[in-house]
Amino acid sequence: MAEPRPSTDEESAPLLDRDRRDPDSLFSALMHPTRPLSNLEKVLAAGSIILLLLMSTFIGLFAGAEVQLKKERASKGHDGTVTTTWTETATATSTKVTTTTVGSVPTGKPEASWRHGDAGELWAVIMSYIKAGDLGRRAADILDSLNTTADPCHDFYEFAVGGWVDSNEIPADRGIYSSFNVVADRNKKILLKVINSIDGTKTPNSAEESNQRKIKAVYESCMDLSQLNEVGIKPFVPLADFLIDTFGPVETEWRGSWDEAYEVPQELVARSDRLEELRVAAKTGGWVWERPTMERTEFLDNDDDVESLKPDTERRDRITKTLAWLHSRGVEGLVNFEIEGDAGGEDSQVQSLWLYQSFGGLPSKEYYEEAPILDLYQSVVAGMLTDIASNTHASSKHPKRDVFDEFLQELVEVEAEGWPWPWPGDDKGDGEDDGGKHPDVPGSKDEPLDKRMEKLAGKVVRFERELMRAGADPEYLFNPHFAYNPYPVQKVYKALPFLDIPAYLSTFAPRTYPENITVTHPPYLKAVSQIVEDTPDYVLSGYFVTRLAMTYAGALGQKTGVWKEARRLKEVLQGIKKGTEENRQDTCLNWLDGIVGYIVGREFVHEAFSAEAKKEGEDIINSIVKAFHDKLPHISWMDAESAKAAQKKAEAIIPKVGYPLTPDTTNPGALQFWYRMLEIKGDDFFGNVLRSTLVEEARTWQTLGRKRDRQTWVMYPQTVNAYYSPPDGEIVFPAGILQPPFYDFSWPAHLKYGSFGAVAAHELTHAFDNSGSQYDEKGRLRDWWTNETVAAFEEKAQCIAKQYSKYYIVGPDGKKEHINGNLTNGEDIADSGLAQAFTAWKSSLSNNDAPLRLPGLEHYTPEQLFFISFGRTWETLIRPQTAVVRIRTDPHSPGYWRAVGTLRNLPAFHQAFDCPVGSRDRADQPGTDEPAQGRAVSALVMIRRRDDSGSDRFPL
Which one-letter DSSP state was computed for residue 367? Predict the structure, then answer.
């Protein structure tokens, strides 16, 4: 078994010990000769290495010179006109002028750089390339990203990344392409290289090889579309069989309103994105949560509200068993239980039981009021149910049937007398009223299957819409102040008469039985109880089967009806051009993360991360924490008592870099043990997905009532993101984000602090923004600032909100869309942490330190390169429609303003570029004189081709 590799002096030493040397390579032969080398062989080998280095150097210089030459030609009019397609019918033309000199760059620029004709200086540059290793390529990347014709004091974004904007485009299946996507795509290539190097036919002889084989098997089972299509819907059928019950006809008012030319209104897309942003923010912070101005209403105090709702015991048991069965497989329905930290209790690390409302197959509750979407959704549900019904094992020839669940070893006997084939209907089957219980059953057993499924789908969609209407708006649901409503288990049990909560909990066999359940929206309990009481069993059955199909459609073959229907709905909801083929590699890599993410993380860390990088990342974070800690007593609006409490919280912050230690990413044996219960089969992708879900759900339930393992993360090592967890007091930075342009071990300190340091300072500042400041040093939801400091903070926060509310983008209709400064306030405040990254970098320098200069960038000062490195973090191309949706829902400001707005408030930036008085105010008025300025601030700006939709999210 391989052991963790100790730290070495090699900058690129892999963190995890595993030999991937090519035995036939030149370097392997030189470093590990089978016999002693002669002196002549050693000299020749050394000469070969020097020659290779020189060749690499000249290639890098040539590439850099070519970039500059293109810009020079553009400045002379050879290629000066750029046509930007805004929509299919409107275009805009702007002139881009670029030169190879620094002429119009910063006011008061430093000395001129080396001359290409000076052989001595050229040789010095070559030697610096050799000495700095990877710095030449990094310098070329920076040079390529710049537009040196833009004035950084007026439009820093265009200056720092204008070249990158011109030389990149958005992939057809996406709505946005940014530096985060660049890194993620590069990380995927690394993982694909690893996967391709694994021999899946070899019998594993170690934990390492066993883990690698699981990666290979999961990925290949996902990529084998021919096998998935051959199997078809067969693996799904046993699951559907468990849920099938009776059904009936229905008429719906939205039928006929769907049209192929329909496009989802931007307001609806905005609402669905808002729901997702709030869901994430509830766990990782960053949202400006409203503080309650009054006491919460105790909705469960009056038991009389549910006394009249007393479903028969048999039905309650059946619903309970079904919900437990679905939830154990990751399928949401009726109500949803989560295991989360008790943020409002005495110890936020104790994992408690939370009860949430149900979500449906459409992105948010507003979609259920849009007739064309409901029409489409009903046809999708009908298509899924028809496909399932055509393959179900239910048959009137068998009055009873046993359903064997191989994953939980459950044996369930379902009454099936009188069921017509191929899908069960009401046992009367003749339309006779059975006392009001099932008044809408089909009038004939001989009705065509698609017609019967159409009727059932209509009623399922109507039922789902009622559930959505009963739920809270996301701003309420995920607000920690309003969502924290703990009640004794017995009180919740009485409020949900259709669910036997003790029996439900026993299904998951938690080690600790909970005393309380935190109800996120108490009114939902009464509403859902009434809805279930009024709904026939056959509709519940159709609803459960639909939720199951929606959850697992992506794990089926692309020729199955269920997969096709899910894809049809996805194309409309996400604005994907009809018939666009999915990127199967991306799809399978995403599934790979979800199934064996930590094993994949180990492979990524070995290939792309080092012990030195981990140590340096921790040092950078700690230096920023110290800078923040030291500044707190000197903040004018914070009184001494609050400053002391804030320092105490800063000292308690736990930084985590690279990878988790539970499971121990450095230990293949630990990873093998972590996934010991997960059986992976190379020819059973659906089974791999299902078994993985069962294992992870069981693992989560075992944490109930226990303190959280502080070595666990909510992200995998390969993830390109970072987060601050308010109840955990942690700032976390996976190895996936410690990659260029955010970080490189070979970079000089000013580049590292300007990019990764800015990310670290952003997450740290979240701990003290208007959301994070509501959690004390132990992660508890508490008021720990004095009233005077809170009032002063809110005044400053509103100042930031007003500033960003002046900023805007230009939508596809040519109208300005202003930022909602209150929505983005938490993230804008967090971005201001850049000041602490700058201070920490300056403090890290000793008097004798000579800054490492990058070839070709000698004319920029370290301070200027610090801010250029920061600006590159927000390189972004975005489609107009996507930009409009984001500005209405995303708690992050657009990338342009995350760069420009942050620097506007930082005196160190204006000093670094010697900006004249008034230039800061000019930067707040985009698009008034410089064409590139208008280009960069407009959403239209960021795209030069026809609009094909897609979506991604800004991290952080």
Answer: G
Tokens of 298: 């105790």
pLDDT band at 485 (very low <50, low <70, confident <90, very high): very high
Among 210, 218, 284, 329, CA closest to 696: 329
DSSP 216-268: HHHHHHHH-HHHHHHHTTGGGHHHHHHH---------TTTT---TT----HHH
Facing residues of 413 across strands? 402
Would you give the end-to-end CA distance of the chain in angstroms? Answer: 37
Please check whether residue 587 is in contact with residue 557, taking contact to mean a CB–CB distance below 8 angstroms.
no
In sequence order, which ranges of 661-786 are alpha helices (DSSP H)?
668-674, 685-701, 749-766
For residue 767, being part of any structural domain is answered with: no
Boundaries of domain holding 541: 233-358+372-555
Paired sense of beta strands 730-734 and 723-725, if any: antiparallel
Place of tokens 């390169």: 865
pLDDT at 530 over 50: yes
Query: Maximum CA pair distance of the chain?
Result: 101
In a domain, 823, yes or no: no
Question: Reduced to 3 states, what is the DSSP secondary structure of residue 526?
Answer: helix
- Please give the residue that has the higher pLDDT: either 101 or 208: 208
SS (H, E, C) 893-935: CCHHHHHHHHHHCCHHHHHHCCCCCCHHHHCCCCCCCCHHHHH
Asked if residue 189 is part of any domain, the answer here is: no
Tokens of 267: 């307001």
CA distances (Å), 821 to each of 269, 797, 825, in order? 20, 10, 6
At 432, is the pLDDT very low, low, confident or very high (cuts 50, 70, 90)? very low
Residue with tokens 């009249």: 308
pLDDT at 648 over 90: yes
Tell me whether residue 493 is in a domain: yes
SS3 251: coil
What domain count does the chain have? 1
| pTM, two decimal places | 0.76
Please state the separation of Cα 883 from the chain's center in Å: 17
**The CATH number of the domain where 325 resides is what?**
1.10.1380
